[in-house]
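Sat 14:20. Reprocessing the chain from the morning session after the first attempt stalled halfway. Input below, unchanged.
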Amino acid sequence: MIVGGLLSPIENVLTDVLKWLHETGGLSWAWSIVALTVIVRILLVPVALRQIHSMQSLQMHAPEMKAIQQRYKSDRQKQSEELMKFYKENKINPYAACLPVVFQIPIFISLFYVLKGFEKHIFPQYPGSSLDWLGLVNITEKTKYGWGPVLLVVYVASQLTSTWLMSTSMQSTSQRVMIMVLPIVFIPFILRFPSGLMIYWLTTNLWTTGQGVVTRRLMPKPQVPPKRTSRTPGRDTPAPAEAGASPDRGAAQTQSRSGPPRKVKRRRGGKPKR
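Finished this time. Tokens:
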């Protein structure tokens, strides 16, 4: 209950928004949760764009970061310092990919407490309203009851899809496997959640999947500027006339050819001697 007390302001905001959607929008309580999810995700669009840019940058600079890790693999502290320096020079925020999830955790927990006391504190204020969604589930009952397992199957499919879109920028196979397995590991815990919370989670997964597909088609990937090395010729440096021929050698050949002709001595027998 300590967590619930700390999140009381968010719980009050969520309750007011659900009431407003139900009263003004004429939506059922279940569809009000869907609309609430869409509103939350719209507000998080700037954060999601930062997440996508960060993931693209990490993917683009992955070979360079791997080279730094290999160079300082025996010194973890030096490796971390060089990586942080590399992030700063290339304006990469490695933690931006987690921002949407971090912002949604308090909302998710707050909605859990709202639904936990929904039937006792809010529902009696609106006689004649319904807690059912599509005639399948009651938003205040646990997901394991009724048609809740069907929602669970759709949740797993949507979670795996959205997670796969997020994990495509990861170079480590172990990281991809871990992040793909996590949704399945959470199933025993999700069965105890209210069905309304599952509707929220399912809606946000579908939003994440659609957002990932759209943004990857519309947002161009940032281009890495070409790097100059010591072997790269300057702009004002003239190119040599022939490959492998130096200016001094060419000048010497020209001078030798333009000098006076050499005298040729003749051997006995009439053949010239060079």
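Residues 2-58+99-218 form one domain.
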